[in-house]
Amino acid sequence: xxxxxxxxxxxxxxxxxxxxxxxxxxxxxxxxxxxxxxxxxxxxxxxxxxxxxxxxxxxxxxxxxxxxxxxxxxxxxxxxxxxxxxxxxxxxxxxxxxxxxxxxxxxxxxxxxxxxxxxxxxxxxxxxxxxxxxxxxxxxxxxxxxxxxxxxxxxxxxxxxxxxxxxxxxxxxxxxxxxxxxxxxxxxxxxxxxxxxxxxxxxxxxxxxxxxxxxxxxxxxxxxxxxxxxxxxxxxxxxxxxxxxxxxxxxx
Amino acid sequence: xxxxxxxxxxxxxxxxxxxxxxxxxxxxxxxxxxxxxxxxxxxxxxxxxxxxxxxxxxxxxxxxxxxxxxxxxxxxxxxxxxxxxxxxxxxxxxxxxxxxxxxxxxxxxxxxxxxxxxxxxxxxxxxxxxxxxxxxxxxxxxxxxxxxxxxxxxxxxxxxxxxxxxxxxxxxxxxxxxxxxxxxxxxxxxxxxxxxxxxxxxxxxxxxxxxxxxxxxxxxxxxxxxxxxxxxxxxxxxxxxxxxxxxxxxxxxxxxxxxxxxxxxxxxxxxxxxxxxxxxxxxxxxxxxxxxxxxxxxxxxxxxxxxxxxxxxxxxxxxxxxxxxxxxxxxxxxxxxxxxxxxxxxxxxxxxxxxxxxxxxxxxxxxxxxxxxxxxxxxxxxxxxxxxxxxxxxxxxxxxxxxxxxxxxxxxxxxxxxxxxxxxxxxxxxxxxxxxxxxxxxxxxxxxxxxxxxxxxxxxxxxxxxxxxxxxxxxxxxxxxxxxxxxxxxxxxxxxxxxxxxxxxxxxxxxxxxxxxxxxxxxxxxxxxxxxxxxxxxxxxxxxxxxxxxxxxxxxxxxxxxxxxxxxxxxxxxxxxxxxxxxxxxxxxxxxxxxxxxxxxxxxxxxxxxxxxxxxxxxxxxxxxxxxxxxxxxxxxxxxxxxxxxxxxxxxxxxxxxxxxxxxxxxxxxxxxxxxxxxxxxxxxxxxxxxxxxxxxxxxxxxxxxxxxxxxxxxxxxxxxxxxxxxxxxxxxxxxxxxxxxxxxxxxxxxxxxxxxxxxxxxxxxxxxxxxxxxxxxxxxxxxxxxxxxxxxxxxxxxxxxxxxxxxxxxxxxxxxxxxxxxxxxxxxxxxxxxxxxxxxxxxxxxxxxxxxxxxxxxxxxxxxxxxxxxxxxxxxxxxxxxxxxxxxxxxxxxxxxxxxxxxxxxxxxxxxxxxxxxxxxxxxxxxxxxxxxxxxxxxxxxxxxxxxxxxxxxxxxxxxxxxxxxxxxxxxxxxxxxxxxxxxxxxxxxxxxxxxxxxxxxxxxxxxxxxxxxxxxxxxxxxxxxxxx
Lengths: 252, 1030
Fold this sequence. Notes:
The structure holds 2 protein chains of 2 kinds.
Chain A: H1 2-19, H2 24-34, H3 38-43, E1 46-55, E2 58-67, E3 72-78, E4 81-88, E5 93-96, E6 103-105, H4 108-117, E7 134-143, E8 146-160, E9 163-174, E10 180-186, E11 196-207, E12 210-218, E13 222-231
Antiparallel strand pairs in A: 1-2, 1-13, 2-3, 3-4, 4-5, 5-6, 7-8, 8-9, 9-10, 10-11, 11-12, 12-13
Chain B: H1 2-13, H2 28-31, E1 36-40, E2 48-53, E3 61-65, E4 70-73, E5 81-82, E6 91-96, E7 105-109, E8 124-127, E9 135-137, E10 146-151, E11 159-163, E12 175-179, E13 187-190, E14 196-203, E15 211-221, E16 224-227, E17 233-237, E18 245-246, E19 260-263, E20 271-275, E21 284-288, E22 296-299, H3 302-305, E23 314-316, E24 324-326, E25 332-334, E26 342-343, E27 351-356, E28 364-368, E29 371-375, E30 383-384, E31 393-398, E32 405-410, E33 415-419, E34 432-435, E35 443-444, E36 450-454, E37 461-465, E38 470-473, E39 493-495, E40 503-506, E41 510-513, E42 521-522, E43 541-542, E44 556-562, E45 565-573, E46 578-581, E47 589-590, E48 603-609, E49 617-623, E50 628-636, E51 644-645, E52 657-662, E53 670-674, E54 677-681, E55 689-691, E56 700-706, E57 711-716, E58 721-724, H4 729-732, H5 735-738, E59 742-744, E60 750-752, E61 777-783, E62 792-797, E63 803-807, E64 814-820, E65 848-856, E66 859-869, H6 877-917, H7 922-939, H8 955-968, H9 975-1012, H10 1023-1027
Parallel strand pairs in B: 16-43, 60-66
Antiparallel strand pairs in B: 1-58, 2-3, 3-4, 4-5, 6-7, 7-8, 8-9, 10-11, 11-12, 12-13, 14-15, 15-16, 15-17, 17-18, 19-20, 20-21, 21-22, 23-24, 24-25, 25-26, 27-28, 28-29, 29-30, 31-32, 32-33, 33-34, 35-36, 36-37, 37-38, 39-40, 40-41, 41-42, 44-45, 45-46, 46-47, 48-49, 49-50, 50-51, 52-53, 53-54, ...
């Protein structure tokens, strides 16, 4: 009789296992569960990433700040000079002109798209319904050589050359552990327009109870290595504000 | 209890999973990071089957191509991107849902202009997300070619599909199909017989229950074509397809051929039709002004009647019912309602479809045998879309140049050769024309700079002396007593591996020349079946005779000389014979009867004579011209006495085979070119894997393996030349390797190529550019499992274990490829107001052996790699060592300066702090600050920007430029550089002296003040700390 009980339990387990992860929501729930729990993710107020982008023998130090209230700033360091690649204070987005090293306001369309994206913090899937996003499980697919769930994430439409276009990203969650290991999205602007580019994520490591990928390749091949992640960092709000352009005495 | 027993039974039926030992040798996992690259060309593009505009957004345009998939433009036709690369590439039609045109797209596969060389489709597909994902609609798997899709604009769940169907066989999968639930269920609503398909199905957009359907009786064989019969007809329905009536009032009696039909969108009572009839004077354009109730014949010009099977598309201006365009050899346009026509402006010939811009009739798009063209002036001048690499190769070959060249001939686009890599990528301008007409085989003379090429049916075979720019026609010609020579449309040629000037051609005989084609000897009897019933092409075509030579049959199609023995020659014929000589043609042995599993008279498409063994050869067969799409590939090891099939169930059952390539090292590694892409086996054909990494399932007509590089080069019929760089890792894959957690593949020593030419290019913004081969060191390893959690790093070390550079490791399961461009890190530059561009140069490493170290969790894996200098180098070894030493010295000098400026800035900051906070020390601090500032202005730029407001270069900039000039040069250090080095070293020494003096005087005083006033001393990092790059 005992053996029957054991068998029964095994069978029930089989049933449970095969029933798991049948829907996109279950996969997403598992993802948050496996990376620290939705509550902990919800409690995050800000994240600071410190790392480097690597290209042709160059290691470019990068700092990236994100806050829950929608501010973002990406700073790089070239030859000891800090350059804000872009900053967004929730309303206004600015960049640094590489020729003059002076701040310039981003075009209105880019700013609007950035504004729509602020809800992504800290992860687009967290409370995605409240954000007005939708998800769809498209099935299993081999990605990075391994089995993944392919989930389609649709965010708010984005503006492209004056017209609204759907804003869709495909996320590939490794079936073994439910974390995303790759994304794919169509490039909407510039010379690559219309092509699909892939980002990959690996080297997930724990930071104060939450798991983040520490190795990322972006735009189909640009590697970014994260060395440090600070949760709820001290942030000087002033850094998001666009500085006044330098005066004319600098010109010669 | 009963229940428990039931459960127990259930448990027993669950398959027992044993611990995994045998790791599968197939699937996507196998290839990991190995990716194909596409080099085009796009300059002559390829055949377009259908064009589709968006109903409201003029930026959007789709092209359905004959062999290269579906492409979308979102910039008004300036550029296109492929959106159907996971599916069959032969496309009949693209249609957008009128209510949801941004998201819902229908694609009917299988090209519909039924020339001899067409490929096949495999059904109907639908996307509901703008082309990102596709679903196959069940029910059309055997449709072979879909010509039309018509969607009810009021209820887009109602869709009609016109299936033209099988070209080479009877089929019941033809006719008009209808769904009323968006594609879930279908009814066949118009069917005539097994040989008559739906050519055009169109809907009256003002009354979606009215449709017109032209039915076409047609059939192709390998040796002929028939268009027309009693069953061809034009039908109309007014009740959504419940009843159909022939509308022939005015048409001549008798057989009809292919019928084109179109409604004028601005007046749907006006219908145009183009007919192929028994009466030549009644061919061409017919018009109805009463919605098909009666017809009037208007025009039988050449442009309207030419080759109906190839050109049968009418387009009416959406705003003007009198402007009518007809596809054709040149395309024709009428502006008087079809009474008279003139040719469209110059563009590639063979126009299959024309569409008008949705808002402006001056703008037209045309789909031709050579890509998509745009007109801005109503069809008078046309310009080509330059980024559609749809070239349709029949054959390719490679040479042994560095980088090697690829040679090949194209459907309707001549013969060409171009480099496998070129400065700035493989551009249109890199390709060279070496033949006219349809191009087929192009071969390089093994030792001389001479190229052989040909046009259809060996009408011309050219010998092109590249250096002298001279051509000579050298095709075999009949002499007294010879039978009439029968050459295939795609006539076989071969050069000898053993006698460089020897050149073979095949008609029904094998012709051999030992003087590069000047004189020929027939060295075989007729090796074909010589079946006279397959030799009358003069009547081919049906109602319209079409004797282009494309249907010549009972000919030799492939000739393979053994790489091991010049007397062994294999020959395959288009009518199914495999013949062998082992004595240079004196005697021939017909081994066809020994073949296993090959239906009689199945086309022998390619024979590959093995490098491993004289008696070993591979033969591939394809029966698509008999409606048999099954893959066939055989291997013999005993001169054809016995054969064994090397095809497995892994290969799709419609992937007929045109080519096979063996590996020169591992006899079990084989590459199969099929109609549905590339398949690879690493176990001699027991298991096959479909290669899909950046490789669409396009028809692969020919494969070559370049010997020096181990690059697999494919000539595809729709996506140009596709290359998989260095397949050598596949040689090593076996169970032992697959069971290891990490395995590094052996690599040949890497040559650090020193090419440094220019690649300036303007006006090419919208051109396709082929991807180059990466010349960096290629580090290849296998991971048993995808690395997702925890740290995994890779670095290069010298043999003493010193780190040279970090690399970004690939984490995929399967094969990973990481490139190292032979450089270490860039120097740390002194901080300044602007950037020193010289500082972005990373020094190259010296030749030698290096260690690649992969750390994964707690495990470390190492692999040695060897780097060699380029043999073509301009320098001696001593000069190079001198250059490396200068580079090192300059690198250190640049970093020393960076450290000095850092120190200086730290003191300046401290001085500023004192100025700001201690009035007592202000004067002293100001003096220190100023002394430092004066020196700094000589060291680095302190004003200006990175562009035209840049300041005079200071020591850092000049030092950086010299460093960069020396480090990036492939030549010896020049006299000018050495003199400049002396100057900059001198300035640097002076700067060091000055800084030491300031430190001794002003800085020392400042620091002493700081100490006394209990201010924190400047925390200056050591040089090692400062330079730390991690």
